[in-house]
Amino acid sequence: IQKPEAKLYMSFMYVAFISLLIGGLMGLLQVFVRSGKFTLPWGIDYYQVLTVHGVILGLVLTTYFIIGFHFSVMGKTVGISEKQRKVAWFAFWTMVVGTVMTAVTILLGEASVLYTFYAPLRAHPAFYIGLALVIIGSWVAGFVNWHQLAVWKKKHPGEKSPLLAFMVTINTVMWFIASLGVAIAVLIQFIPWSLGWAETINVLVSRTLFWYFGHPLVYFWLLPAYMAWYAIIPKIIGGKIFSDSLARMSFVLFLFFSIPVGFHHQLTEPGIDPTWKFIQVVLTMMVVIPSLMTAFSLFATFEITGRRKGFKGLFGWLKHLPWKDVRFLAPFIGMLAFIPGGAGGIINASHQMNSLVHNTIWVTGHFHLTVATTVMLTFFGISYWLVPHLTGRTLTPKLNKLGIIQSIVWTIGMSIMSGAMHIQGLLGGPRRSSFSEYGGTEQASEWIGYQMAQAVGGTILFIGIILMVYIFVKLAWFAPKGHEEFPIAEEEDDAEPTPSYFENWKLWIAITIALILFAYTIPFIDIIQNSPAGSVPFDWPIGRY
Ligand code: HAS
């Protein structure tokens, strides 16, 4: 790999791993506070800590890692020109300026609004302007990725695009369309309101625009993990991609169904017609299908590879998997975690059952299994080869072993913490709350044991974070010089050719927009028409004229 390219990709990784450390420390403070045995010193507010935790892990760490990974994948499969690299640096610095602005306002206690920044909680304008810059930077990065693919396609007329480049394109297109929603909310609702140009803010409009973005956001995190599962893990286990077409189809389905489902986060909210909530619940069940296809495809890859190596019996093929290779083990644990994590998601989405779990700490348990285990362990699994690949070093057997210990520590810590969160949630324990005995009620006394368990699990997880950051530092600067492979699997030899319609981007985008218009147009008109008297949907600039 060329040095200037590696420098670009690694810059994203540095921010990601610094975020992991800071965000993880905030998580540790939170579980301590919630155990009831610790109070934050120097008058620091619980919600300030919770905001740093959510913003820095949910938005900063993920976005930087993903964009760095996207660039690495695109550079490897379709190449990057000098000019594209320069624009990519512009994207990086725009994001950094935005991140610093946001971070400073949170640290000064001017933006304790959590990562969802629900109105009417109001932050300092710099918080929203910073977020807008991060989004703009991420768009520029996406435009560079599209340009990279377009240049490649021009040079390879009639050929199908490399699978990983196709996947990056889907993820960036989805991200662009989805983040338009939050960009509108930030630009024409939150910024004018926080600057005092608008007197009011329409809460339901802002929440609807947020969740139009918020659900595809979770697939923006998930799809890079799926890229590794489909196209990289088969190579690591000595196998091949089960089906290139199936992989592409599942990504196309994610593009279609990730966005028109935001209401499943608003099922308890008044002001949205139940029929449209129901329709979006049905669409949510559709977005489960590509994950089930992914599970099927992974089992097929594991089994075919195992049988080819001569392992027999119903589960004999399990034996061939490289359990001692952390590049496999960490993502594999991520896959396992996604079985209960995904099932929990289906429970959340099931309209009536949502009323049992909504706003309870069950939901926090759900997303610590999905994003903080499935996605994070896969990102760690990627880092074990990507970082040394970029820095010209090697993953030594010792670091591999440490990585295995890290994965096990993470699994133990998360099982305890997330398990306790799930159970406490079913007992009615609220999310987004600091410690309270709620006036000594009997119900709240049932929660304390689970909160203690979360503190134990959270402490183990923090040890996992320290280990991971240590391994990252080693791989980035100190591991022996050498060559670490960028593993990309090939298709099965007898694979049917991938149909050419997969390259029909206009069709995919048109269907996506049609589904969004179907799911959102009428409910949005309803929301605006049914807003309480005197409440305008957009106070600025429209409401004033
Ligand atoms: Fe979720 C809330 C529904 C997936 C993240 N979710 C959240 C929040 C976050 C989040 C952060 O419907 C909180 C937001 C907030 O702050 O308020 N979620 C779903 C559904 C899915 C789902 C239906 N969520 C995710 C993923 C996330 C994520 C992925 C992050 C990366 N979620 C909800 C709902 C809420 C929600 C409601 C709102 C709750 C409320 O009331 O507030 C689906 O995508 C899940 C489908 C997944 C599967 C699993 C497939 C399994 C696979 C692994 C195979 C394993 C193998 C290995 C092959 C069906 C692919 C096995 C090998 C062996 C040898 C055994």
Automatic annotation (TrEMBL):
GO terms for cellular component: membrane. The chain crosses the membrane at residues 12-32, 52-75, 87-108, 128-151, 163-191, 211-233, 245-263, 278-302, 328-347, 367-387, 408-427, 447-473, 507-528. It is a multi-pass membrane protein. It is found in: Membrane. Keywords: Electron transport, Heme, Iron, Membrane, Metal-binding, Respiratory chain, Transmembrane, Transmembrane helix, Transport. The keyword Disulfide bond does not apply. Pfam families: COX1. Residues 12-473 form the Cytochrome oxidase subunit I profile domain. GO terms for molecular function: cytochrome-c oxidase activity; heme binding. GO terms for biological process: aerobic respiration. Its main location: membrane. Belongs to the heme-copper respiratory oxidase family. This is Cytochrome c oxidase subunit 1.
